[in-house]
Amino acid sequence: MARLTDTDRGTRADMDSFAGGYFRNAVYRHWDPDEVDIAGDRRELLDYEESFSGEEFDMLRLAVARFGGGEEAVTEDLMPLGLALDGTDEQLFFTTQLYEEAKHTRFFDRYWEEVLTPVAEELGVEVTEPTDERYLNDDYVALFDAVERSMASLLDDRSPEARARAYSHYHIVAESVLAQTAYYSLQSAFSSSGDDDVVTRPRSKLPNLDGLVGGIARIRSDEGRHVGFGMHQVRKLIQEDNVDEAVVREVLTELMPHVAGIFTDIEGPVDHGALVSYAREKLTRRLDIITEADAEVPPVDDLVAIERAG
Ligand SMILES: [Fe+2]
Ligand SMILES: [Fe+2]
Asked: Model-level pTM?
């Protein structure tokens, strides 16, 4: 067993710190991707067979394949960040993020196996794999390649600029702008709580996929912490380590066309224009929080106390 040095002893975790509070919140909000009830989605998709055509079913598969692939990619790409964090609190939080990305991957895999494949068989359409290249496009590949490169670069370069670039790729563009827009689109299309301005037909003609949307709600809550952590770190790098905010802006400008390009070939019941403006608005809001000196990333530690008190 490694001997503890004085420095190690001096850096015990502090649950009152920003990352410590996020860690506690993650532990408290634990959920199991195998326990989300998705059986009703199978029936719903078969009931709506007439108004929700075979082609649209394949678009739903495309969306789930891109989500699952994205979650799997970010699970694998996250590791180098663990080596680049110096604080114990940050490292504790990091383990929850890694674990949660793996849970998100599991949820989408399960949805494929237990809902999409049996429905495809029942409808008599081709059974496909989520890893099939037909579900990717060039912008999707380019974006995730860029995220992987920026994270892997931390193995050789842990400078404040390299860290700010990595957080901008991963936490701001992939997890915040891209994933949140995609979740918003699925929720709008397949939930009675969705945004009617985004769907291009009456909601009564669309299946209610409560299992998918319920899993996504859990995932979004986890992602809220991941994004909050990344934003907090980027703000610190700008304010305390003098990283030029242009570093962040450059990454966002470079990647935004890929984010838009990921949605343009989806021919589902959602309006592309509405989605792209949602993504742009998210991006602008993130930039404001990062660059405005008096803006704040919400701490979540008090949420734990509030929920416990009932
Ligand atoms: Fe995730
Ligand atoms: Fe995440």
From this structure: 0.91
For residues 37 and 214, the answer to whether their CB atoms sit within 8 Å is yes
- Measure 226 CA to ligand 1 centroid, in angstroms: 8
Please write the tens of the pLDDT for every residue from 134-167.
999 999 999 999 999 999 999 999 999 999 999 9
Q: Is the pLDDT of residue 285 over 50?
A: yes
Instruction: List the alpha helices (DSSP H) in the chain.
Output: 6-9, 18-28, 39-47, 54-77, 79-84, 88-111, 117-123, 138-152, 160-167, 179-190, 210-239, 245-264, 272-291, 301-309
301 CA distance to ligand 2 middle (Å): 19
| Interval between CA 123 and ligand 1 midpoint (Å) | 30
Ligand at minimal distance from the CA of 103 is: 1
Backbone angles phi, psi at 37, to 5 degrees: -80, 110
Task: Indicate which ligand has the atom closest to the C-alpha of 106.
Answer: 1
Mean pLDDT of the chain: 89
Least confident interval from 128-132, 145-149, 185-189, 262-266:
262-266
Q: How far is the CA of 202 from the centre of ligand 2 (A)?
A: 32
Residue 30: pLDDT band with limits 50, 70, 90: very high
Q: How far apart are CA 119 and CA 127, in angstroms?
A: 9
Ligand 1: distance of its center to the CA of 85 in Å? 20
Q: What is the 223 CA–ligand 1 centroid distance (Å)?
A: 6
Alpha carbon of 101 to ligand 2 centroid (Å):
6
